[in-house]
Amino acid sequence: MDEFDLLVVGGGINGTGIAADAAGRGLSVLLCEQKDLGWATSSSSSKLIHGGLRYLEHYEFRLVSHALAEREVLLKNAPHIIRPLRFRLPHRPHLRPAWLIRTGLFLYDHLAKRVSLPPSARVRMHDPSPLLNDVDTCFEYSDGWVDDARLVSLVAQQARDKGAQICPRTRCSAVQRQSDHWLVELTSGTGEKRPVKAKVLVNAAGPWVGRFLQQGVHQQSQNHIRLVQGSHIVVPRIDDQSYAYILQHTDGRIVFVIPYEQHFSLIGTTEVEYQGDPAKVQISAAEVDYLLSVVNSYFKIKIAATDIVHSFSGVRPLLDDNQQQAGKVTRDYRFELSGAKDQPPLLTVFGGKITTYRRLAQAAVNKLGEFLPAMGRPWTAAALLPGGDFTSLAALQSELWQRYPWLDRSVLDRYARQYGTLSHRILQDCQAVEDLGEHFGQGLYRREVDYLCQYEWASTTEDILWRRTKLGLHMNQSQQLQLQRFMDKE
Ligand SMILES: Cc1cc2nc3c(=O)[nH]c(=O)nc-3n(C[C@H](O)[C@H](O)[C@H](O)COP(=O)(O)OP(=O)(O)OC[C@H]3O[C@@H](n4cnc5c(N)ncnc54)[C@H](O)[C@@H]3O)c2cc1C
C-alpha cells in the first residue's frame, strides 16, 4: 500500500496550493479531487487578484494588506494568466461620499508595497463616455485579473513537477484514523478503490469541508462554513475600452463589469445564502434581473436577458463569523488542526480567496512542521508558475510569431496568454498548420487537445472548453459537437 506524508482532499486552488507547497519542501504528497481540478468554486470566481477594496468598509485591514501584497507576488509569478486591470468606480455622491472613496483608495494604495501597478486617481468623464450623463466623475485604481481555472491547473502542474501525485476524478470516500497514520480509501470515477496511508490529512474540500468533517471523519468542529452563492453573466462587450467598472448599488453592494475574452463583458456578482448541494448551484432569474438592473442604471447601452451568452454560479465556502449579512462575512481563512498528541493530525481549511491561496498554502504547510520535521523551507514566493518564465507578454508573443509564422497570430496570442513559454511544448516539431491535426474551430487543433489531456489532466469536452481554455464562449454548437465526438472516440 502506498504511503504519503500528506494527503490533500480537494483539487481547488487551496488544495493544489497546499500540495505544491508541500511537495516543493520535499514531502511525499497525494492530492485527490472528486471531479475535474478547479471545477467547483475555483472556476466560478470574479477572477480578480485583488486586495478587496470593499473589505475596507468592514475594517478588514489585515486581510486587505495581505491580499494586496500577494497581488504583487502573483502578478510576477504568473504573468501569462494574471494581468493588471484598471478599474473605474463611477461616483454617485448619494451612495458614497467622495471623501470616503478617496480615503479608501489612499489606504488601498498604501496598505502594501505597490511595485507594478499605478496609483489611484480621480478622472472627469467626457463624451463619448459609456456611462450615463449624470456620472461626471470616476475614481480609478488598479488590481489584477486571473484566469482562475488555469491558475488551478498551473499550480497542480507545479505540484506534479515537484513530485506530487495529482489524482483528479478520484474521491476520498473513507478515512480511518489509525494509531500513527490515516488509512484512506480513494474511489476513482469508474468505482475502482485504492487504499493508501498518509501521515497527515488535509481537508481542503471548499464548500464540502463541513460535510467531509462530519460524514468522513465524524468530527465536530469549532468553526463553521457559511455557503454563499455568487453568480455571473457574460454578455457581448458593453464598452470597447479596456477598463473594468466597479458599480455601487443602492443596497450597499458592488457589482463588477470586467472585460472578458476580447469580445465579452463579465458581470457579477451576487451574494445569496445557499443551503443546497454545492454541486447543483445555478443562477436564478432574480440574480439575472439584479445584475442587469445594476448595469443598466450606469451604462448608456441597455442590456437584457436575451443578451446573455453564458452564466455561471459558485458557492463561497466562507468562514462563518456570525455576521447577519452575507456580504459582511469575512473573506479571510482559518485553520483547524485536530488530533490528540499521539494521533495523526487533520488540518482543515476554512474560507480563503483565490488571491491569498499561496500565502494560505504556505501557512498551512508551516503549521504541519511539528508533525513532518524533515520538511524544507517555504519556497513559493519567488517561484514562477509553469510557463511564466518570460519578461513581457508582448515579447513572448512576437517570439511566437517569428518562430511559428505559419500559425494564425490570434491563436499564438491566445497560447501566450494561456500557456506562456509552454506554448513551445505544444508546438514542438511542428512545421506547418497541417502538423497540428484536426481543426475543431476557433483555432483549437488536435495538438492542443492532446496536450491538455496529456499534461493538464483534461478528459472531457467541458474540461477543455470551459476550464483549460474559454473556447466554449467562441465555438459554435457544431464545432463543440465535433470536439465532443472526437473526445468520445479517443
Ligand atoms: C462568486 C464568487 C466570486 C469570487 N471572486 C473572487 C475573486 O474575484 N478573487 C478571489 O481572490 N476570490 C474570489 N472568490 C473566492 C474563491 O473563488 C474561493 O475562495 C476559492 O476558489 C476556494 O477554493 P477552494 O479550493 O477552497 O474550494 P473549491 O475550489 O470549491 O475546491 C474544493 C474541491 O474539493 C473537492 N472535494 C470535496 N470533497 C471531496 C472528496 N471527498 N474527495 C475529493 N475531492 C473532494 C471538490 O470537488 C472541489 O473541487 C469568489 C468566490 C465566488 C463564489
Question: Mind explaining what this structure looks like?
Answer:
It is a single chain. This protein is an alpha+beta fold and 490 residues long. It folds into three domains: 3-41 and 150-223 and 330-382, FAD/NAD(P)-binding domain, CATH 3.50.50.60; 81-145 and 226-323, D-Amino Acid Oxidase, Chain A, domain 2 (2-Layer Sandwich), CATH 3.30.9.10; 393-489, Helicase, Ruva Protein, domain 3 (Orthogonal Bundle). The protein has helices spanning 13-24, 61-77, 98-110, 148-161, 209-216, 285-296, 357-367, 393-403, 409-419, 423-427, 446-455, 461-468, 477-489, and strands at residues 3-9, 29-32, 48-49, 82-90, 121-124, 137-146, 165-167, 170-177, 182-188, 193-203, 225-236, 244-248, 254-260, 264-268, 272-273, 310-319, 333-338, 346-351, 439-441, 444-445. The strands form three sheets. Strands 3, 4, 5, 6, 11, 12, 13, 14, 15 and 16 form a ten-stranded mixed sheet that branches. Strands 1, 2, 7, 8, 9, 10, 17 and 18 form an eight-stranded mixed sheet that branches. β12 (244-248) and β13 form a beta hairpin. The relative contact order is 0.16. It catalyses: a quinone + sn-glycerol 3-phosphate = dihydroxyacetone phosphate + a quinol.
Task: Describe the structure in brief.
This protein is 30% helix and 25% strand.
Global shape? globular
* Ligand names: flavin-adenine dinucleotide
Radius of gyration: 23 Å
Beta-strand proportion:
25-35%
CATH architecture of the largest domain: 3-Layer(bba) Sandwich
Any idea how many domains? 3
Report low-confidence residues grouped into runs of 5 or more: none
What name does CATH use for the topology of the largest domain?
FAD/NAD(P)-binding domain
- Name the average pLDDT: 95
Number of DSSP strands?
20
For CATH, the homologous superfamily of the largest domain is named as FAD/NAD(P)-binding domain
Q: By helix and strand content, what is the structural category? A: alpha+beta
Number of helices: 13
Distance between the termini: 31 Å
Main beta sheet: strand number and arrangement?
Answer: 10 strands, mixed
What percent of the residues sit in helical stretches (DSSP H or I)? 25-40%
Question: What is the class of the largest domain in the CATH system?
Answer: Alpha Beta
